[in-house]
Amino acid sequence: MDNILTLHRELKEGTYKHGSYKAFKINDPKPRDIHKATVRDRLVHHAIYRQLYQFFDRTFIADSYSCRQGKGTHKALNRFREFAYKVSRNHTKTCWVLKCDIKKFFASIDQTILLSIISLYTPDQRIKDLIKEIMSSFCSCCMTRTLWPIGQNIRMRHKGLPLGNLTSQLLVNVYMNEFDQYMKHKLKAKHYIRYADDFVILSRDKQELQRIGRYIALFLRQRLKLELHPDKVFIKTFASGVDFLGWIHFPDHRVLRTSTKRRMVKRTEGADEESPTLRSYLGLLKHGNAGKLSAWMRKAARFQ
After folding, report:
1. Residue 15 lies in a domain
2. CA-CA to 241 of 20 to 30 Å: which in 13, 16, 158, 180?
């Protein structure tokens, strides 16, 4: 109780200082660096999240689906299918899809730009100082040195948000909302969906998507200091199968990505029918054409 009272006093007086992180790695499916804050700091994260989520969520576009109440992967998948149906006019016209992925997303968030965006929404200096304290407690590259041409001065910039902080889930959406608004209101991308660092734009005009792609790369680089992943940007027809959020989408069905399927089988090996992991994956499989895989996994579990 004394620790809580001390934390409350520090927050009230503006003397709160964020502690260090415990770092560890996970593979989900690719290697990720997770940074876990202390219990004391996580209490502050939750308090900030509760205060700011509803305010910022109202500013987000409807088709942003990551880390938002009432959204999520499954609704993004259904929205993607709905858009494909509309653009292709009931699958009678060719529907082209521009699929993009941002390189090293969390590690590349520019904290100075993020704080300037937050300042546009809230005049409360205490909130801005508290968010700055949390952000500055972490740096993905210690410091990034950027050479400026005039005088070759060196400017130090903090970059990155920690995977593991509840506040990071909200702050990346605040950061990417700048891009979402640009897509919707400047580029007029009507059929646009974003989930974290993955996003798609659908159109019947391939050349239009190529034009939009150039503007996207320019905006991300100049405004948000982000880069598209060179190996994960493509334009292809919906009918040929589009990889989005772990599924390969076709006009009349969607199938699980092969790498996801392998990971699923590996993680449920030896699991019985009551395994939470198995039940979670079986729930996932209901959202696509994976009846055979689901039946095989159930059968394998019965023999454990």
Report:
1. yes
2. 180
CA distances from 121 to 82, 116, 124, 143, 251 (A): 33, 9, 9, 27, 41
**Per-residue model confidence as pLDDT tens digits over 129-167:** 999 999 999 987 653 334 334 444 444 568 999 998 999
User: Cα separation of 93 and 87, whole Å?
Assistant: 8
Contacts of 141 (CB under 8 A, 6+ apart): 107, 159, 160
Number of independent structural domains in the chain: 2
For 10: left if phi > 0, alpha if psi spans -120 to 50, otherwise beta; the answer is: alpha
Nearest to 160 by CA among 172, 176, 170, 151: 172
Q: Which of 20, 139, 118, 177 is nearest to 126 (CA)?
A: 118
What is the reported pTM? 0.88
Whole-angstrom Cα distance, residue 276 to residue 282?
10
E strands, 204-263, are: 234-237, 242-244, 247-249, 254-256
CATH of the domain at 248: 3.30.70.270
Domain range for 178 is 1-143+154-252
Last residue of a domain, one of 252, 279, 294: 252
